[in-house]
Write a structure and sequence with these properties.
alpha+beta, five-stranded antiparallel β-sheet, 156 residues, elongated
């Protein structure tokens, strides 16, 4: 009986060690995917996105407060916290920041329908409390350059 307990104990220790080893193993494919998609959504802070876009050479207009409310009325949406428009040549981006994620979800279809009616050649997306549309290059530019540089050195 004592031999059986010793064997079961060793088997249990071996199993737990293997479980721990494989649970802590770095998933390199997942990390590569995260690096590629790290700028797939705009910066969540309108002021940081504005300053990063200006530093990247974009013409930027950030509307908040009453100006954002007026623009929201034109777009027929509500609960808007801020709106950011940026362009540089053919590269453009529009981000609408809502008060919360529920408001963004509620207004997403309205914005998408407006873009379809305008026959705009862009895809409308939603992330947390933002609805945005624009080019990937412009979305990446909403992050400060030093953050982008750090990510580039990590990939090397």
């Amino acid at each position: 009986m004592k031999k059986l307990i010793k064997i079961l104990s060793l088997l249990l220790i071996f199993t737990m060690t293997c479980t721990l080893f494989f649970a802590c193993k770095k998933d390199e494919d997942k990390d590569d995917k995260d690096d590629k998609d790290s700028y797939s959504t705009p910066n969540k802070d309108p002021q940081q996105a504005e300053s990063a876009l200006k530093a990247a050479g974009y013409d930027v207009m950030l509307a908040d407060g009453d100006l954002a409310d007026m623009a929201a009325t034109i777009l027929e949406v509500d609960n808007v916290e801020a709106m950011l428009s940026a362009s540089k040549g053919d590269v453009a981006l529009e981000i609408i920041y809502f008060d919360d994620a529920d408001a963004a979800k509620k207004n997403f279809e309205t914005i998408k329908k407006s873009m379809e009616e305008a026959e705009a050649d862009t895809e409308v997306k939603i992330s947390d409390n933002m609805v945005y549309y624009g080019t990937k290059e412009a979305i990446k530019a909403t992050y400060p350059q030093e953050t982008q540089d750090k990510d580039e050195t990590k990939k090397s």
